[in-house]
Amino acid sequence: MGFVVREGDYAKLGTCIHNQKVTFTFEGEKEDSCAIVLIDKKSGKQERVEVSDQFCLGSLRSVVIEGIDTAAYDYLYERNGVLQMDPYARRIKGREIWKNEARKEQEYHVMAAFDETNFDWSTDVKPEIPKSEMIMYKLHVRGFSMDHGAPAKIAGTFRAVEDKLDYLKDLGITTLEFMPVYEFEEIVVPVKEPLPQYINWEPEEEDVILPEQEELPTRLNYWGYGSGDYFAVKASYAVNPGKANLEFMELVHELHNRGMECIMEMYFPEGVNHNLILDALRYWVRSFHVDGFHLLGENLPITAIVQDVLLSRTKIFYTNFDGSLLREDKKYKNLFVYREEYQYPARKILNHINGDMVEFVNQQRKQGNCLGFVNFIASNNGFTLADLFMYNDRHNEENGEDNADGNPWNFSNNYGVEGPTRKKFVAASRMRQWRNAVLMLFLAQGVPLLWSGDEMQNSQKGNNNAYCQDNPTGWLNWKNAKSHADCIQFVKDVIAFRKLHPIVANEMPFHFNDYQTVGFPDLSYHGENAWVTGIELGRMSLGMLYCGAYSSGENREDVYVGYNFLSAVTSLALPKLPKKRKWYLAIDSSAEVPVCSKPTVMKNQQQILMNPQSICVLVGK
What we know:
Layout: E1 4-7, E2 14-18, E3 21-27, E4 34-40, E5 46-51, E6 56-57, E7 60-66, E8 73-79, E9 82-84, E10 92-93, E11 111-113, E12 136-139, H1 141-145, H2 158-163, H3 165-171, E13 175-178, E14 182-184, E15 187-188, E16 219-220, E17 228-233, H4 244-257, E18 261-267, H5 274-288, E19 292-296, H6 302-307, E20 315-318, E21 335-338, H7 343-350, H8 357-364, E22 372-375, H9 424-442, E23 447-451, H10 480-483, H11 485-500, E24 523-526, E25 541-546, E26 558-564, E27 570-573, E28 583-588, E29 595-601, E30 607-610, E31 614-620
Parallel strand pairs: 12-13, 12-23, 13-18, 18-19, 19-20, 20-21, 21-22, 22-23
Antiparallel strand pairs: 1-7, 2-3, 3-7, 4-5, 4-8, 6-7, 8-9, 8-11, 10-11, 14-17, 15-16, 24-25, 25-26, 26-31, 27-30, 28-29, 28-31
């Protein structure tokens, strides 16, 4: 082809394009036979460019090839006669069509494509929302948007998500968490078990022929939790698959225009090179301006990630952080603990399954000096929030695993009927519990996270592991937005209350004393009598008083949250407010209209009578 080949600079893995010169840097030992395979886009003809072992430094090969028209070629690497994908490829060809089973018939169906996407970020401003103001919403691009009512050509794409940004902003969401949007193979062909071997047996003319193995059905990796191509945007999530990078950039930019953040969920299986992980995170921050990462996987290089100066203002969500990484002097606190520790105490006390008030209250006031905590009651892994009160048991039969997959311990309660019902009493009980769940989540001090559709009581028909359900079971049913408009409004009102009363989401841990001498402790507990110093074993009702004078915001109103998880009416004491202030009822989960359009003054200023299984919110002003 007349290409000029010389040694590269080894500085950056993957490809670097400058004019008609391309630097290729990839792994290859000096003893390996290595080549770059260029594939003509029109003819499919392959041209091998040998990479000499002279162009080797450590375990890297690096060459500059002059004269390549990158618009005319795709490429692969070849090592010791085996074709390989570039793990640093910024665009993948071959997966443009979602769930195209024709791919499994091809010997090598994907290849790397050169990408020179340019985007004008000159007006982009990252919101950098503090943890006390964050409201998170987790979604799957296809699941969120396949049934969203927009033209079919954009369903399941970034554009369809973009169409709903105003809805999410109006709801009160500040931070979107996206399940994997980098390239991954959604079609999984199960590995065939080897046929039995017969020792010392030779077939004769009339012998029975060994049976052929049946073709195993493919499985769907709908969620994307598997090995991935971590530098490429998933092409099938774009209206124009060839411009997937551009469409995701536009989505991030539109989020930032609305003052909202983009968090990418990234799963790295055991054994992924740590340098690649770090390079990938830096790449998404530099090239796509993402605001953070929810990292999944074992033995990740968390220390290196936290200490990386380029990522110091990127939010990092992980299961745990070593205490040595937590610095009080750090200007921007970017670390967040993200695990299931809030979910189960909340579910247990809601559904009367070994509920523990001490455990629950500790979760409600959980906060760190140097890091934040993410709270959720429902997520993609488990029941939706509506199903939590509709099903006692998982119903994963459609997954094809004999209903043996998914978590068997859900701490759920169907309230008398398994699945949907027309019984008014059951429906009313479920609605009250759903409201209680929403209230406790958004009144907890940590960062609340809502699973997509939970604001409109979306159901998965009891499937608590919809990893392979690319169908209405795993999609958000947007028709619920009309039929459950009152639920959406409730979530919106509760989020607004949280934002109006920043003392609830206080940036720092509470001290439980009046260290500023304002008249009340920053946080205090109250039972049948005021000022409970401890929570006795078995207690199922409690009042939590947040002193507004300790608020970092302008609103200095006190907030009293009464929790009654008993199946009986309960009385809780109201501390006497100073300076002619009074208690006003703002929210009552047991009321037909739970949120008061205008808080009403309590006739009894000494105690509140709470209905069974209810949460009441009062303000002192």
